[in-house]
Specification:
- The complex is a heterotrimer of chains A (274), B (684) and C (348).
- With 274 residues, chain A is an alpha/beta fold.
- Helices cover 19% and strands 30% of the residues of chain A.
- Chain A has a 7-stranded mixed beta sheet with strand order 10-9-8-7-11-12-15, with helices on both faces. Chain A has a 6-stranded antiparallel beta sheet with strand order 4-3-6-1-2-5, covered by helices on one side.
- Chain B has a 7-stranded mixed beta sheet with strand order 5-4-16-15-14-6-7, with helices on both faces. A 6-stranded mixed beta barrel of chain B has the order 21-25-22-24-23-28.
- In chain B, helix 8 packs antiparallel against helix 11.
- Chain C has 11 helices and 11 strands.
- In chain C, the strands form 2 sheets. A 7-stranded mixed beta sheet of chain C has the order 1-9-8-7-6-2-3, with helices on both faces.
- In chain C, a hairpin with a 3-residue loop joins strand 8 and strand 9.
- In chain C, helix 6 packs across helix 11.
- The chains are: A alpha/beta (274), B alpha/beta (684), C alpha/beta (348).
- The structure holds flavin-adenine dinucleotide, iron/sulfur cluster (3 copies) and FE2/S2 (inorganic) cluster.
- The site of one iron/sulfur cluster has 13 residues of chain B, from helix 1 and helix 7.
Chain lengths: 274, 684, 348
């Protein structure tokens, strides 16, 4: 009998560092026992023994370092337990799963990234990837919104991106006394992007309400629906198209996604807003 | 792989199911297709009834509290400690300073032994169980009117009925399989009348939905009877031959014409008349009620009113014609039948009647107390008064189920000695001095009696986990240690004793229960085939008695400070205090937290939106729950399920009790509501 | 493959007894009263062959309601995959058709090793249905009452003997060593089988046209008010999913025995529950019952054909037995087909 791959069996990984990013999100540096290759937009199933397993997007860039980085927001049962992890703790990891952001077609075009909150994490790798091959792309812009200035994630990366010539628009919902920048939600700043919407590709990530609003707005600004991409969230248990939880209108978010174009989202009526 | 036929451990429908066993592990369940109640179906609880059994949090060995912490103990140590403590307390105070709580989750055999233990070994009638909290008004109320407090008909008759009148029962959710039979009947053309202040699933199918104000059931029923009398639908020959006390009753009824009722109940007089005519004219009319009727300070009155209605129209004593209280827990009927009540032995034989007492004394070879004991609701008061010193709780969690939780907590703390025997560490068990691990329904043999009086066998499918033991074995061991020999080789020997001394169970022996899914009591001898419907030819007590009932407003009415009515209840995915459901992933997931249903108009006026958090406070306490804005509840009323540990609705409810049945008023109390501003950013 | 043999009825029990020495034998046995349940065969002569449909479906042998996936401890994870050899005797044709489809579902890019390992160690001996149950409607779907392929071994009851058809390597395996028990089929045997098929077809009570229902849904003729009435009758029991041989959803739960030691289980789950899709932050994507009811029907009638070229229903009729709301596939599909939009959408 042929050997069958054990798709549900997590492999061991170690937490090698934990960085508190905001009051409710932490960045975990995780060293898998068996390293694997991954693409921007893919996710892993993060297992905590005795607690459960949740899907988390990979926030690091493949090839840069051996460990992977996972940015986790504390919202429920499993994520709260994840937040109690300390350096040196063992966890389980499965993956990578899901499709990836398609960037080949974006070559030679303007590229717009829109991120909200922790949504910046899954885009980070993609942005790095695009910057690495900067000459293949035209304008590259990022609009990134946070709840308040202290919750802006990956500030080091953002600075380095700006140095490399990316136009970054930061905005916060609520400013504090030191904040000089923009305020308001990201949709209010879409017009600051100097991309030619008709010919650009957009990659959006963030809370579902935001995603929906941004997709609508930029398609109204003239971008083609098939060029607008986002990653969807749904309840997930397996990550491999078997458990049925993420199934919606004929699509498995875990294997057919999580990255979908606005066109697909509308065509399949995928549930991206509650 | 084996499949063991047994009975669902959740509700009183008593559905038949198979437990699937492989190598000593439970791997699933499936419904019994030929079972007369569920016919190949199950509700979500039944389908998931296997998961909690081998749960890792099961109690696996006895625990003794030492310096405030539980320490693992051997059975020998635990039993010896309990025996010496109980004996000590019995000696230094008196037997009546000990109270026993039996359980509607346990088998008939276990309830019988528990009441034998209380009466013969301890020497007290202080034994009760949670039926007090749901159907004691039925047991008492129907005993006075008909002489027997049980469902008069069988579930399988429902489908052929012509009129179904459902009052105070959210049937499809609380007794799903009975609900299924009702919908089948409606499909076949039966007319469905539902009286319930809330919109429920069953009310969606009603031809007439009477949304009366909470706590006004008596007025509604009285006015229906008023119409029946005034429009000449009364069955006079029946009243002459079979009943008594009609005249006194009629006088009261005449005070409740529909237009008066309209003002009190909020139901239009037209609807009242329509319902009255439909119910009265059709012969095959079944009346159903549940906790919406019983859990009031007027619980017994409500039950009387239902009984009156049946007698008035002669809707009783025939197939598909009768009065059907739907009992909640899987074996609440059985626990009552077995005499886990302070005033009766098994088969509702009164402890105060001397021949009966003598009969039991003979069989048990002990002198027995003749004064009825304390009811469950009185037990906690007596602890605080210092009259009760020790308590033995089998398979109950009064800390969650009782009205006025803080009162119970105080009482439990005050006990000199508390033993809790359960399958999980319950909220109540935390307060115990000794905790004993009991076996679940899948790990023992015995019988359950469902709501239609069907005594059915449950069968052991797997070995008890850890060192846990079936409750009956624990009781036997403890009795023996206390110097009273209880020896049974298996549960059928206990049933044999029950049959010997209990007229209604006389023909019920285990070997007779194997075919045809048990027997319905009364079953008078070994050839008797059981009784599908009661009160044929005459009422159990002879003549049926009309008991006039007048309207008494709820103990607590709304006022300026507490302008809303709170009513509580169960939800479909949860069961009782949720000790079992919380350990079942699917059931737990559906309602992870407590919520309150509030009418859109009320929500608007308070600035409450769906999912806002609101603080609900009564005169006794306050809890914070999430709002569910829905027109399921009428204006001015909110509904909160009582299963949640973090937001226990019973912190709010009124411990006022029915004067005779001592059932607490879960269904109505006055509360106020405030919006709680959330700290978190609303946006995400 | 599909090679035929003939086995005299009197030799069946001998054959099974020999096979039982190698693998555990499961078959249709008497349960309570008139029930038939599949369980380990203690006494071969007690197998009930001409039986009504069993509930639940034999998917329980490949994908049990509760299954331990693996154990974790300080020393790592240990796969607890079941791989006991099992012979399942007396399965019906519709269920074999379902399993053929399940093989495709659990296979694919990611192979479900729990299912596959059980599957590779399980042999099914199915039997053509001479007497379909009143709830059966495989006939309109080509998934029964007799199959021409997809089975390991198919028996056709020809009165005094069985026509034994071998449809797979597995099937051949369990015949090979006992070839002396079987004889070569003659034309008469095939004629008799054909007669059995004809007479079975004539006994079907139900003929449900799922394709018509699909077309009506696709062309937008079935509106939400229809589904609203269907959903209203749903008890949210999950029975339709638990019973259906083609429903595959599961939930995953952890059972810690100690802080470092425990097992991960999977248990059947159903899309009829609103918690099935709930997300953190109090988000309930399918809070309304109608969304879930529609999802179940759409998956079976629309998406299954898109993905597999076949309906997600083999007409086994189990949901008809088990649905307390009487909104099973047969009832609803025929309502859609017949264009019944009366208020009493579901039921009766
Ligand atoms: C493809 C993908 C990528 C994601 N990437 C990230 C990330 O990079 N960082 C991050 O903080 N979060 C991410 N999430 C969301 C994260 O998975 C959920 O917040 C998490 O599952 C919540 O689990 P919980 O146990 O804390 O919540 P609870 O509310 O207690 O949920 C209980 C169970 O429900 C399921 N569940 C609930 N909400 C979700 C959800 N939103 N998505 C999937 N399953 C859910 C899980 O199985 C969870 O164990 C991602 C989700 C998806 C689908
Ligand atoms: S209806 Fe009651 S007895 Fe039947 S399966 Fe559900 S909980 Fe169990
Ligand atoms: S949908 Fe119903 S009839 Fe069809 S295969 Fe599933 S259970 Fe059987
Ligand atoms: S079997 Fe019927 S009632 Fe139960 S979940 Fe399925 S559709 Fe709903
Ligand atoms: S997460 Fe299991 S099917 Fe997608």
């Amino acid at each position: 009998m042929s050997r069958i791959a054990e798709i549900y069996l997590p492999s061991k990984a170690k937490v090698i560092d934990v960085i508190e990013m905001t009051p409710d999100s932490k960045l975990f540096m995780v060293m898998p026992e068996m390293p694997f290759k991954y693409k921007p937009g893919q996710f892993v199933m993060f297992s905590l023994w005795g607690v459960g397993e949740v899907p988390i997007s990979i926030a690091s860039t493949f090839g840069v370092q051996k460990h992977i980085e996972l940015c986790v927001r504390r919202v429920g049962h499993v994520t709260s337990a994840i937040h109690r992890l300390k350096t040196g703790d063992d966890i389980g990891i499965r993956g990578p799963f899901g499709n990836a952001f398609p960037i080949t077609n974006a070559r030679g075009k303007d590229t717009l990234f829109v991120a909200g909150g922790v949504g910046i994490a899954p885009l980070r790798y993609l942005i790095n990837e695009v910057i690495k091959n900067k000459k293949d792309f035209r304008r590259i812009e990022l609009i990134y919104g946070s709840r308040n200035p202290s919750e802006i994630l990956f500030m080091d990366d953002i600075n380095s991106w700006q140095k490399k010539g990316i136009n970054v628009v930061l905005t916060v919902d609520r400013k504090d006394k030191d904040w000089r920048g923009n305020t308001g939600i990201v949709t209010e700043h879409l017009n600051k992007a100097k991309v030619s919407f008709k010919d650009a590709h957009a990659f959006i990530c963030g809370p579902s309400v935001m995603i929906k609003a941004v997709m609508q707005d930029i398609s109204q600004l003239g971008m083609y629906e098939e060029n607008i991409f986002t990653t969807l969230e749904s309840h997930m248990k397996c990550g491999v198209g078997k458990c049925g939880h993420c199934y919606a209108d004929g699509k498995y978010i875990c294997i057919d996604g999580p990255v979908f174009s606005y066109r697909e989202i509308r065509q399949y009526n995928l549930n991206c807003t509650p | 792989m084996n499949k063991i036929p047994t009975i669902c451990p959740y509700c009183g429908c008593g559905c038949g199911l198979y437990l699937h066993v492989e190598d000593g592990n439970l791997t699933g369940v499936s419904p019994i297709r030929s079972h007369p109640v569920n016919k190949g179906t199950l509700c979500v609880k039944g389908w998931n009834s296997f998961e909690f059994i081998q749960h890792h949090e099961r109690l696996k060995y006895p625990l003794i509290k030492v310096n405030g912490e539980f320490k693992r103990a051997s059975w020998g140590e635990a039993i010896a400690l309990i025996a010496s403590k109980l004996t000590g307390i019995k000696r230094s105070y008196r037997p009546d300073s000990i109270a026993i709580m039996s359980s509607a989750k346990c088998t008939n055999e276990e309830n019988y032994l528990m009441m034998k233990f209380a009466r013969a070994v301890i020497g007290t009638n202080n034994i009760d169980h949670c039926a007090r909290l749901c159907h004691s008004s039925t047991v008492g109320g129907l005993a006075e009117t008909f002489g027997s407090g049980a469902m008069t008909n069988s579930i399988s008759e429902i489908v052929s009925a012509k009129v179904l009148f459902v009052i105070g029962s959210n049937t499809t959710e609380q007794h799903p399989m009975i609900g299924m039979h009702m919908l089948d009947a409606v499909n076949r053309g039966a007319i469905l009348i539902v009286a319930d202040p809330r919109k429920t699933q069953i009310s969606d199918f009603a031809h007439i939905h009477l949304r009366h104000r909470c706590g006004t059931d008596v007025v509604l029923l009285d006015s229906i009877m008023n119409v029946i009398i005034n429009e000449g639908f009364v069955d006079i020959p029946f009243i002459r031959r079979r009943t008594e006390n009609f005249d006194a009753f009629e006088k009261v009824i005449l005070r409740y014409p529909p237009d008066v009722a309209e003002k009190i109940t909020g139901v239009s007089s037209q609807d009242i008349k329509k319902a009255a005519r439909i119910y009265a004219i059709e012969k095959r009319a079944m009346l159903f009620y549940s906790m919406g009727i019983t859990q009031h300070i007027t619980g017994v009155d409500n039950v009387h009113a239902c009984a009156n209605l049946c007698m008035l129209t002669a809707h009783i004593g025939q197939p598909m014609t009768g009065l059907n209280p739907l009992r909640g827990q899987n074996n609440v009927q059985g626990a009552c039948d077995m005499g886990a009540l302070p005033d009766v032995y098994s088969g509702y034989q009164k402890v105060s009647e001397s021949d009966i007492k003598k009969k039991f004394e003979h069989l048990w070879r002990r002198r027995l107390p003749s004064r009825p004991g304390l009811t469950l609701t009185e037990m906690f008061d007596s602890i605080l008064d210092g009259k009760i010193k020790a308590m033995y709780i089998m398979g109950e969690n009064p800390l969650m189920s009782d009205p006025d939780v803080s009162h119970v907590k105080e009482a439990l703390k005050k006990l000199e000695f508390l033993v809790v025997q359960d399958i999980f560490m319950s909220e109540t068990a935390e307060f115990a001095h000794v905790v004993l691990p009991a076996a679940t329904f899948a790990e023992k043999d015995g019988t359950f009696t469902n709501t239609e009086r069907r005594v059915q066998k449950i069968r052991q499918a797997i070995e008890p986990v850890g060192e846990s033991m079936p409750d009956w074995k624990i009781i036997c061991a403890l009795s023996k240690k206390m110097g009273y020999n209880m020896e049974y080789r298996a549960t059928h020997e206990i049933m044999e004793e029950v049959a010997l001394i209990t007229p209604s169970y006389r023909g019920i022996l285990h070997h007779r229960l194997d075919s045809n899914f048990g027997l319905q009591w009364p079953c008078h001898d070994l050839n008797h085939q059981g009784t599908p419907f009661l009160h044929r030819k005459k009422f159990t007590k002879g003549l049926g008695t009309f008991i006039p009932v007048d309207y008494i407003p709820p103990a607590e009415e709304t006022d300026k400070r507490f302008p809303f009515l709170l009513t509580t209840g169960r939800i479909y995915f949860r069961y009782h205090t949720a000790t079992m459901c919380q350990r079942t992933s699917t059931l737990e997931r559906e309602y992870p937290e407590c919520y309150a249903e509030i009418n859109p108009k009320d929500a608007d006026s308070l600035g409450i939106k769906g999912n806002s958090m609101m603080r609900v406070s009564s005169r006794r306490g306050s809890i914070i729950v999430r709002a569910q804005v829905t027109d399921k509840v009428p204006e001015g009323t909110i509904f909160i399920p009582f299963h949640f540990r973090e937001a226990s609705a019973n912190l709010l409810t009124n411990p006022a009790v029915d004067p005779s049945a001592k059932i607490p008023e879960y269904k109505v109390c006055a509360v106020k509501i405030e919006l709680v501003e959330s700290k978190r950013d609303q946006k995400d | 493959m599909n090679k035929g043999m003939v086995l005299e009825k009197s030799k069946l029990s001998y054959w099974l007894r020999q096979l039982r020495k190698e693998m555990s034998l499961i078959g249709p046995m008497r349960g309570e009263n008139s029930d038939i349940v599949f369980k380990t065969v203690e006494n071969i002569h007690e197998i009930v062959l001409d039986c009504p449909a069993s509930i639940p479906s034999p998917k329980e042998f490949l994908f049990p309601q509760k299954e331990k996936m693996f154990r974790y401890s300080k020393d790592g994870v240990e796969n607890l995959r079941g791989n006991k050899g099992r012979l399942i005797f007396g399965v019906r044709s519709c269920d074999i058709s379902a399993i053929t489809l399940l093989d495709r579902f659990y296979g694919g890019k990611f192979v479900d090793d729990y299912y596959m390992s059980r599957r590779n160690n399980t042999i099914f001996i199915s039997i053509g249905c001479n007497n379909p149950d009143i709830t059966c409607f495989c006939i309109g779907l080509g998934s029964g009452p007799f199959l021409s392929s997809g089975f390991d071994i198919q028996l056709s009851d020809l009165g005094d003997r069985y026509l034994v058809e071998i449809g797979s390597k597995h099937g051949l395996e369990i015949i090979k060593d006992f070839i002396h028990l079987f004889s070569r089929p003659k034309k008469l045997d095939y004629d008799d089988q054909y007669e059995a098929i004809l007479s079975s077809q004539a006994r079907f009570e139900k003929r449900i046209n799922l394709e018509n229902a699909r077309q009506k849904i696709l062309s937008g003729q079935v509106n939400d008010s229809f589904w609203e009435v269907v959903a209203q009758r749903c008890f949210e029991c999950g029975g339709c999913v638990y019973e259906c041989p083609l429903c595959t959803c599961f939930n995953v739960i952890d059972r810690p025995y100690s802080p470092t030691d425990g097992v991960r289980l999977r248990v059947w789950d159903t899309c009829l529950f609103k918690g099935f899709t709930k997300m953190a932050g109090n988000i309930w994507p399918a809070e309304k019952k109608i969304m879930r009811t529609k999802r179940w029907y759409f998956h079976k009638l629309i998406y299954y054909p898109e993905q597999f070229g076949k309906f997600g229903c083999v007409g086994c009729g189990r949901c008809t037995i088990t649905c307390p709301g009487r909104i099973d596939m047969a009832t609803i599909a025929s309502k859609i087909d017949m264009g019944d939009r009366r208020r009493k959408g579901g039921g009766g």
